[in-house]
Design brief:
By secondary structure, the chain is an alpha/beta fold. The protein is built from 14 helices and 15 strands. Bound molecules: 4'-deoxy-4'-aminopyridoxal-5'-phosphate (PMP) and glutamic acid.
């Protein structure tokens, strides 16, 4: 035998979004004035009523193991939330709480995939989906969205990628990294395909509260009993309640899948943090005012960033309909050089920008399209003004 790590782990790429964020934080700790458009993490503090709930949980001694699937208190609040916001009826036994939506996604994939099963992933997509599918033994099948349609994959294109091995489709609306929002009509068409070919849908709805210009979130599971029976809805408190570090996510879906996810989790991490679970339950009872205020602020930042970026010669971008990301088209700069170094793709662009202007962005190669970089506008307007100003200088220096 050898002392090497497994084949499976050798092939895993570390999360680029998290790596860029930690690099930016490291440079900042060294005293450098870095502007971070890297990780998608609300910059607001967790609201006080939620922090108070965590303190209450500690004082009340809620410091022991909870049921693996989550406390009844939290699952009951999630049940109420899914009915209230998404018109979805679930029993607490149809819900499992995990350490972030990230763990829910991975548990769900492990619960449904056998080796070689295919998972359709509309692209560009969040960096962790294809890695997670592979870690769970599946094969990611990337389906490129049409740029002219805000990167939305047409139902015909999606269906063209279905094979007898297709086991699931991962949807993410609003989308990270494109900001696209799937309409009820598109979701209906996707649902018909999933029902016709009998595969699961993992619906990642973590950005549901961030849809601009009067748009509305539709959960694919709400479109009928047939598609609901094949859908695993995934959500969490990270983005809506500025609770990224608390690590609480949840999944709701068919009983057999939720049961398998719970058994799987019982042997890996057991329950999610007991204090954070109580805080999340309390978060879900309130927070409308906080979410409205953060929504208004994100909207103002989106408009500011878009106006500034589109006024820079040589760059293009779409106005995203949701989430807090913007895809910046850098294709006109590919092949040019800055400080004597050629920009061959999004990694070079992001590396050179961080090095020379101290602005962190995520190369979209990680999301499946090397002609773009992703900017997160989950940062203050002041930083957006300074950061985009530096990007404008950088572009001028490319020759
Ligand atoms: N899905 C998407 C699309 C995301 O961008 C993120 C980012 N964190 C997650 C899931 C995971 O969220 P959580 O913090 O709940 O694990
Ligand atoms: N989801 C966020 C992002 O894409 C946070 C980092 C991560 O979990 O990937 O930036």
């Amino acid at each position: 035998m050898s002392l090497s790590v497994s084949q499976r782990c050798r092939n895993i790429q570390p999360s680029v979004t998290l790596a860029i964020d930690s690099r930016a934080k490291q440079l900042r700790a060294m005293g450098l004035d870095v502007i971070g458009f890297g990780a998608g993490e609300p910059d607001f503090d967790t609201p006080k009523y939620i922090k108070d709930a965590a303190k209450d949980a500690l004082d009340a001694g809620l410091t022991k193991y909870t049921p693996v699937a989550g406390t009844v208190e939290l699952r009951t609040e999630i049940q109420a939330k899914l009915l209230r916001d998404n018109r979805l009826e679930y029993e607490p036994t149809d819900i499992v709480v995990s350490t972030g939506a990230k763990q829910c996604l991975y548990n769900a994939l492990c619960a449904i995939l056998d080796p070689g099963d295919e998972v359709l992933i509309p692209a560009p997509c969040w960096v962790s989906y294809p890695e997670m599918v592979q870690m769970a033994g599946g094969v990611p099948i990337m389906v490129k969205g049409d740029e002219k349609e805000n990167f939305v994959v047409s139902p015909a294109e999606l269906e063209a990628h279905v094979t007898p091995k297709t086991k699931a489709l991962i949807l993410n609306s609003p989308n990270n990294p494109t900001g696209s929002v799937l309409s009820g009509q598109i979701l209906r068409a996707y649902a018909d395909i999933a029902v016709r070919h009998e595969f699961f849908v993992l619906s990642d709805e973590i950005y549901e509260k961030l849809i601009y210009d009067g748009g509305r979130h539709v959960s694919i599971a709400s479109l009928g009993e047939d598609i609901k029976a094949q859908t695993i809805v995934i959500n969490g408190v990270s983005k809506s309640y500025a609770m990224t570090g608390w690590r609480i996510g949840y999944a709701a879906g068919p009983k057999n899948v939720i049961k398998a996810m719970t058994s799987f989790q019982s042997h890996t991490t057991s329950n999610a943090n007991s204090i954070a679970q109580h805080a999340a339950a309390v978060a879900l009872t309130d927070g409308e005012k906080f979410m409205h205020e953060s929504f208004m602020e994100f909207n103002a930042r989106r408009n500011l960033m878009y106006d500034m970026l589109t006024s820079i010669d040589g760059l293009k971008c779409h106005l995203p309909a949701g989430a807090f990301y913007m895809m910046l088209d850098i294709s006109s700069l590919i092949g040019k050089s800055v400080n004597g170094k050629e920009i061959r793709g999004s990694d070079d662009f992001a590396g050179a920008l961080l090095e020379s202007k101290l602005v962190a962005v995520v190369p979209a190669r990680a999301f499946g399209d090397d002609r773009y970089v992703r900017l997160s506008y989950a940062t203050t307007r002041e930083k957006i003004i300074v950061g985009i100003g530096r990007i404008a200088e950088f572009v001028k220096e490319c020759e």
